Amino acid sequence: MAEYYPTALGASSREEITLLGADLAKDVMGHVGFGELAFWLATQRRPSKGETRVFEAVLAALADHGFTPTAIVTRLTYLSAPDSVQGALAAGLLGGGSRFLGVTEDCGRFLHEHLRQTQLPLDESGWDALALEVLEAAKGSRIPGLGHHVHKDGDPRTARLFEIAREEDLVGPHLSLFAAIGRVHPQVLGKTLPLNGAGVCGAALADLGLPLELLRGFALLARTAGLIGQLAEELRNPVANEIFLSVDLNNASVPPEPYGGPHG
Q1: Mean per-residue pLDDT for 223-242?
Q2: How many whole angstroms separate alpha carbon 74 and alpha carbon 208?
Q3: Alpha helices per DSSP H over 6-123
């Protein structure tokens, strides 16, 4: 058995608490913002001011989108178990998948996979050519980050995050390829779709050098703040019971429909 378990994160002694090699009380509390700290914890390097600005813009972009399934299930779980705030928050976070929140990770991984064999740097025409290759190879499949069920004419978060990344000189290969996909996809798909906010967040996080395996984790970090807000509003202006009753009082009994197996 190991005599010790090394960690560069938090450690406590009788006299002090250290975090990332710094004195938590003296050097972190009151000096380091939460977004900056979250980045630092994940990478074990302190981000620059520009990196912190882009990272926190991503967190803001993903915090809350109104009555999405994650918000509704959080409110309904709290209705059912008001003694379990942690259960309500966990219920909402568990819904972060391929349709909601998970797109952030899916897009980052998708872009990274197509960049691995690419010789950089590229000019705009080079990015467009690469994007056309990517889209042709993925034809018939869902392109992560492309399309939005509400913002048909453009997701307002996308342009703003690109703007912030340009201002901080942090537009890297993932954002460049994502932008090129936005420019050329009508040539391949025959229609114009918006680049969505979750996708641009994944591209931005990947350009910051954050672990691809944790991109969904950052989306969940952001959504946790939003779900706390949902619960706070539920306390002030409850709607969960109305949501529940709208289903419970309007269901219709139908004959059973036996499952026919995977082939019908």
Answers
A1: 96
A2: 31
A3: 34-43, 49-62, 69-80, 85-94, 103-115
Where would I find the beta strands (DSSP E) of the chain? 10-12, 17-19, 22-23
Question: Domain map of the chain by residue range?
Answer: 103-212
Give CA–CA dist 122/155, Å, rounded: 26
Closest CA to 199 of 98, 120, 121: 98
Fold classification of 103-212 is Cytochrome p450-Terp; domain 2 (1.10.230)
- Rounded to whole angstroms, the Cα distance separating 130 from 57 reads 28
Per-residue model confidence as pLDDT tens digits over 114-146:
998 888 888 999 999 999 999 999 888 889 999
Q: Whole-model pTM above 0.85? A: yes
Cα angle vertex 44, ends 42, 49, to 5°? 85
CB within 8 Å of 149: residues ≥ 6 apart? none
Distance CA 62, CA 100 (A): 10
147: left (phi over 0), alpha (psi -120 to 50) or beta: left
Q: Which of 180, 68, 203, 184 is nearest to 124 (CA)?
A: 180
Structure tokens at 109: 């991984």
